[in-house]
Structure formats: C-alpha cells, structure tokens
Amino acid sequence: MRLAEAEKEKARKVKKIDEAIWLINHENFDEALVLFQELRKEDPNSSIAAYYLGLTLKQVQRYKEAKPELEAAATLTPRVDNAIPELIDLLFKLEEFDEAKKWIETAEKDNIAPAQTAFIKGMILLRENKDTDATIAAFDKAKSLDESL
C-alpha cells in the first residue's frame, strides 16, 4: 500500500511540474512561480524544482532570490547540468565575477554548454579589463563552438 501512495505522490509532483512548465512556456510566470515555490517546500532536495524555481525567478529579474535556487540545482543530486550556465549568467548579471569563474571552471571541467561557457567567460574577462589576450581567446573559442555567438 505504501508503494502505491508513493507512486501517486510522485505522479502528483510530476503533474505539478508539467503544469508549471506549461505556465512558463505561456509566459505566466507569477502562477508558475507559486507552483515551483510549493514544490520546493514539499521537496527541498529536488534539484528539478530548484532549477525551475531559479529559472523562473531569473526570468522575472529577481536575481538575488534566483541565486540560491540555481546553486541548489547545480549541487543537489542529481545535478541539473543546465543550472550551471544559468547560474554563471546570473552571477555575471549580479557582477559576482569571482564566483562566476568558479562555476565556469566546473562547466569547463565537465564540458557543460562549452560555447555558452566560453562566451560568458569572455564577457567577464572583458568587464574586468585585465587580460585582453584571454578575453579574445574566450570569444574565439565560443565562436568556434557555435557560429551564432
């Protein structure tokens, strides 16, 4: 009987996540935000709920609130790899360059979104205005990996 209840609960959460994603896709961020906040409270160890909550908060430009959610998505098990480039971009927006660089190292080591990672690395180096050669190299790498950048 317990197994059946656990399966029902899992199905309910999946349905709630699907509903919230549908709301995001239809640009109804406020309602999606409520659902993802509920999911995070129900299951604080859910990397998926943390990811989508962080993504939604980022979308509505609540960057400081998005940061811990994306960090959780990037560190909980299972890790949401897509959370790492989102977190790097967010840290760039918050001008937290040193922290962004730590996550860039993780993304580079684990080959996560290499073109996007190289591009944002170039943006950070450009903002810091310290190493022109490294900045150009990062942008060249990004372009070689993705011509659209």
Q: Flag low-confidence runs.
A: none
Instruction: Find the structural class using helix and strand composition.
Output: mainly alpha
What Rg, in angstroms, do the CA atoms define?
18 Å
Distance between the termini: 53 Å
How many strands, what sense, and barrel or not for the largest sheet? none
* Total of DSSP H or I helical runs spanning 4+ residues: 8
Label the overall shape: elongated
- Total number of strands: 0
Order of H and E elements: HHHHHHHH
Mean pLDDT: 93
Fraction of residues in β-strands: under 5%
- Helicity level: over 70%
Molecular structure report:
The chain is built from eight helices and no strands. It has helices at residues 2-25, 29-42, 47-59, 63-75, 83-93, 97-109, 114-128, 132-145.
How would you sum up this structure in a few lines?
Helices cover 79% and strands 0% of the residues. With 149 residues, the chain is an all-alpha fold.
Task: Identify the notable features of this structure and list them briefly.
elongated, 149 residues, mainly alpha, 0% strand
Describe the SSE topology.
Blueprint: H1 2-25, H2 29-42, H3 47-59, H4 63-75, H5 83-93, H6 97-109, H7 114-128, H8 132-145
Helix pairs in contact: 1-2, 2-3, 3-4, 4-5, 5-6, 5-7, 6-7, 7-8
